[in-house]
Each structure stands twice: as structure tokens, then as C-alpha cells.
Amino acid sequence: MLDSLLHSDARLAEVVTHADKYELQIIYTQVNRDAQNRPHFTQYDYHLNARQYFNPASLVKLPTAALALEKLNRLHQPGLTRRTPMATGTAFRCQTPAPYIPTADSDQVNTVGNYIKRMLLVSDNVAYNRLYEFLGQRPLNARLWELGYPQARITRRFAPCDTAANRHTNPITFLNATTGQVIYQQPAAFNLHSFPLPLGNIRKGRGYQAGGRIIYQPYDFTTANYLPLQNVTDMLKAVLFPEATPAAQRFQLTPDDYAFLRYYLHSTPHGSGFSRYQSRAYFDAYKKYLYYGRQRNQPTQPGLHLYNIVGMSHGYLSDVAYFADSTHQSEFLLSAVLYVNQDGILNDGAYEYESIGLPFLKALGQVLYQYEARRPRTHHPDLSELFAKEVVR
Fold first, then answer.
1. Of the candidates 240, 285, 273, which has an alpha carbon nearest to the alpha carbon of residue 389?
2. 157 and 167 Cβ atoms separated by less than 8 Å
3. From residue 270, how far is each of 82, 121, 274 by CA, in Å?
4. Which of 64, 202, 292, 376 is the most exposed place for a label (fewest CB within 10 A)?
5. Residue closest to 26 by CA, chosen among 367, 286, 320
6. Within the chain, which residues score under 50 in pLDDT?
7. What residues pair up with 49 in beta bridges, in sequence order?
8. Among 160, 216, 167, which Cα is nearest to 192's?
């Protein structure tokens, strides 16, 4: 059925016809509700292959955000919440400080919650680095493996740090906003053990740019971050549908944590009310590739709520999304990744994001949305509870 849908629209033809060239992977998940409004999932795949490496880029921000909230809960420190001011120090090369600077605008304070907002609203890389450092390289990965994601590997900041520097993470202090008293201190940490390489040596392309010149050797992704598309899809489901997730795979989050994540997975930079992102530099489709294609002036679809995480790096373009449509009372999940780098050179900035990648993802989301809008259902979803949970900041 998915194959048939992918061949039903001419806008998809170039990428689908050359799926191997574009390293295309798609997961389409139908959501069917029973009489008690409980969700049941039916998944359809296209060229899904967990052993085909793709650079996850900002997709790693979803598990990092969820595990940062989970860590706050597991620390059980009085006064330590996602709103507690956070100061990051330095203890090794490639580390940068982020001091606590009191301000009347709470959105400007460095906190776990604000870092998550920055990550989910505009995919801020520095915010991700701060939470990677808070979690620590080994605990972050060990927890993912414990949750049932043995191939997951999050080992790098988004910064030009070498492998050794990424194994070192910063000292962090949480402070009482009123008194300045220390609530919790976390010393600098070091991951003593290197990680196994689930895919072995990974090299891509025919060359890469470094130091202003092209080096005609494949780019080495062997120790880079990796999240299979299935993993990210399951993580999004675990955040949106915790009650339908096996207990062993659930994040240890409170109802308020889940509502917080859902709000910022769905919100647009302007619609969020977050003061940092009210400028014209940001727009509704800024981080909505599926269906909207990241087009600045794309009109929004009335009733459509998109909860998603995206990635864009090294020619790889990805979006993992849940569509909830109050107009047609429909819902589904759609995940996709493709590679658009026709010259085979990495790090040169010459990728076909605008000409091929984003138009494909836009069309893909629209084709599936239109199909789901007319797909017969025994029980239409009651989405009122989901939408009601969005009133959290």
C-alpha cells in the first residue's frame, strides 16, 4: 500500500524511482483507535534498513531532551526542576562556559527547560551541547540501550571537538534563582570506555571539504552520532503515547514533562510565545519539513497539528512527525530520511535541500495527509485530550 501511495504523485517520482541513489527510508504508521480511544499502530516501511547509515543530525535532540527531563526526576534533589538556573563550567579542551546571568526575562535564563525549548523550536545546537554535557556521554547512551535502542549512539557535541574531547563533559551547577545558593553540583566527567561500532567503519562520498580545500577521500562517519529511523520513530511514539508504550521502554517522566515536550514538539517559533524567537528570522514552517517543506510563506493547514523533530546535515534531510488533524479527525505518524548530495562532496555546503529534498518531504507529507483524511475508520480519534495538554510552558 505504501509503495502504491508513493507512486501516486508525480512530485515524488524522481526520488522514489531512484530510492537507492537518495538512500531513501520511510516509515508510515497508521493509528487506529478502539471504542475506548486507545491507539493501535500498523506500520508500513519503504527501504527501511537500520544498517544503512545516515547522519541523524538534530534527530538526536529528541532523546536528549527526554533524558534530560528524566535525569532531573531521577536525581530527586529538592528545588531542582527544568526551570532551575544552570551554570556550565569548563574542565577540558573544546569546552565552553555558560554562566548563570540573572535577568527579568525568564526565557533568557540558562535552564534545562529553556535549552529544550531552543532545541525543539529552532533546533539550536548550543542548547543540545549543554544537555549532552549534563547527561554525560556514557550515561546518555547506557540509558538509551536500557530503553531498548542498542544501535543508538550519541557521542558528539555539535562543535568541532575530537573524539577524546567529546568523551569529556563539563562541570555543571544548579542554583536557586532567588538566593544564588547551590542546589546541585555535577563534577566534570569522562567516559573511560570507547563504544562499540554497530555498523563498523562508515565512509561516505568521494571527498570532503576541510581547511578551505577539497580532500578526495570518503568522509569518515565511523564514530559519529547514529540513530536508526525506527529508533527515532519509537521515541516520538513513546513521548506522545506513553500509555501505549511497553513499560520497559517508557521514559521516566511526569505528566507535566510529557505535556511540556508535546507543546514544544508542536509549537512554531512565533506561536510558542518564547521571547527569543519572535523575530522575522523565524517562521511557522521553520522546522516543519513534512507537509510544509520549510517554506517561509507557506499557508498553514487549518486543524493540522504537527509534532516533530528534524535533521539537516551533510546532505541528509530527515523528519519524524506525528500528524493530528482535528478537521478530518485523522492521525498518523510519518518518518523519512533522504540524501541529497549529487556532487558527492561533503562539508562544501552544496546540497540539494531546496531543489530536491524539501520539496519531496513536503509532497510526501501532503500525499499521506490526503490519504489519511479519507481513510475509513471504525472509530474516529478523540484528540481533545491531546490538544488540551498543550497549555503548558
1. 240
2. no
3. 22, 9, 7
4. 376
5. 320
6. 391
7. none
8. 167
- How far is it, in rounded angstroms, from Cα 72 to Cα 387? 26
What is the reported pLDDT for 389? 54
| CATH number given to 2-388 | 3.40.710.10
Surface-to-core class of residue 149, CB atoms within 10 Å of its CB (0-12 exposed, 13-18 middle, 19+ buried): buried
pLDDT in tens, 180-212: 999 999 999 999 999 988 899 999 999 999 988
Average pLDDT, the chain: 95
Secondary structure of the chain in HEC code, one letter for each residue: CHHHHHCCCHHHHHHHHCCCCCCCEEEEEEEEECCCCCEEEEEEEECCCCCCCCCCHHHHHHHHHHHHHHHHHHHCCCCCCCCCCEEECCCCCCCCCECCCCCCCHHHCCCHHHHHHHHHHHCCHHHHHHHHHHHCHHHHHHHHHHCCCCCCECCCCCCCCCHHHHHEECCEEEECCCCCCEEEEECCEECCCCCCCCCCCCEECCEEEECCEEECCCEECCCCCECCHHHHHHHHHHHHCHHHCCHHHCCCCCHHHHHHHHHHHHCCCCCCCCHHHCCCCCCCCCCCCCCCCCCCCCCCCCCEEEEEEEEEECCEEEEEEEEEECCCCEEEEEEEEEECCCCCEECCCCCCHHHHHHHHHHHHHHHHHHHHHHCCCCCCCCCHHHHHCCCCC
Are 203 and 135 in contact by the 8 Å Cβ rule? The answer is no
Distance CA 98, CA 88 (A): 5
CB 26 within 8 A of CB 16: no
Per-residue burial over 278-294, b = 16 or more CB atoms within 10 Å of its CB, e = otherwise: eeeebbbbbbbbbbbbb
Distance CA 339, CA 104 (A): 44
Annotated domain spans of the chain: 2-388
* pTM exceeds 0.90 for this model: yes
What pLDDT is stored for residue 282 in this prediction? 92
- The amino acid at 97: P
Per the structure block, which three cell numbers stand in for 121? Answer: 523550536
CB 226 within 8 A of CB 151: yes
pLDDT at 385: 80
What angle in degrees, to the nearest 10, is found between the helix axes of 255-266 and 112-122? 30
